[in-house]
Automatic annotation (TrEMBL):
The lineage of its organism: Bacteria, Pseudomonadati, Pseudomonadota, Gammaproteobacteria, Alteromonadales. Belongs to the membrane fusion protein (MFP) (TC 8.A.1) family. SUPFAM superfamilies: HlyD-like secretion proteins. Gene3D superfamilies: 2.40.30.170, 2.40.420.20, 2.40.50.100, Helix hairpin bin. This is Efflux RND transporter periplasmic adaptor subunit. It comes from Thalassomonas haliotis. It comes from the Bacteria. InterPro entries: Beta-barrel_RND_2, RND_pump_MFP. Signal peptide: none annotated. Residues 63-133 form the CusB-like beta-barrel domain.
């Protein structure tokens, strides 16, 4: 009986060794995640701490990290920002700032933020390029004009205002303006131009102060030596 008990214990020890060996051949993810592409081959020997793939955690939210220059005022926690992808049919996600870095970056001197939006709003792959729209200044109304309306010299930027003289005739007057941000083919005017002002656009570079201009049709085509276009400042 003693011999039989010893044989059983030996068999159990061998079984434990085999189970430990099998366990070393099994890989378990430490958290719920999506598995990336691997480069493993059947029968390949792996050393300890060998990287075999990447794991992307599956959570109920997505983090988006971005930075803003220190010239902008610091955004408060819970501030709402818009996250949009750069694709042609890109989505827009409404996110909320959940963390602000306590110091500026030593290399770029920018302040880092982290925004978060729920997974129910959509999914972004890690390292996706996005555009972040944040309220870095108070909302205000500005005049928007076509870039074609702007003429420049060493003293600054100008537009040609068309002053009504009656009988469908106008007089060109050069008006100095202060420009702001650009939105597509439109430029924001921060000073020097009131909404609703009639200005020359296409062909404005051909005009000069005091030149008489005539509107030729409903599309605001005008003649001043060569045809040019006009628009109302929005």
């Amino acid at each position: 009986m003693d011999q039989a008990k010893a044989e059983v214990e030996i068999a159990q020890s061998e079984l434990a060794v085999l189970k430990a060996t099998i366990a070393k051949k099994q890989v378990y993810a430490p958290f719920t995640a999506r598995v990336g592409i691997h480069n493993l081959e059947v029968g390949q020997y792996l050393d300890n701490n060998t990287k075999i793939t990447e794991l992307i955690g599956v959570y109920d939210y997505t983090w988006v990290d971005f930075s803003l220059p220190q010239t902008y005022g610091e955004l408060a926690l819970a501030t709402q920002v818009d996250i949009s992808t750069i694709a042609d049919n890109g989505q827009v996600f409404e996110a909320e700032i959940i963390a602000v870095d306590p110091q500026l970056s030593s290399s770029s001197r920018q302040l880092k933020y982290r925004a978060q939006f729920a997974k129910t709003s959509g999914f972004l792959k890690p390292n996706t390029l996005v555009t972040v729209t944040a309220p870095v200044a108070k909302a205000r109304e500005l005049v928007a004009i076509s870039d074609l309306a702007i003429t420049r010299d060493h003293l600054g930027e100008y537009v040609f205002v068309l002053q009504d003289e009656g009988n469908n005739s106008y007089r060109a007057k050069r008006q100095k303006v202060v420009l702001g941000d650009r939105r597509g083919d439109k430029v924001m005017v921060t000073d020097g131009l009131a909404p609703g002002t009639l200005i020359a656009t296409k062909g404005a570079f051909k005009l000069r102060p005091g030149l008489k201009v005539f509107i030729s049709d409903e599309n605001a085509e005008m003649s001043a030596g060569n045809n040019s276009a006009a628009e109302t400042a929005l």
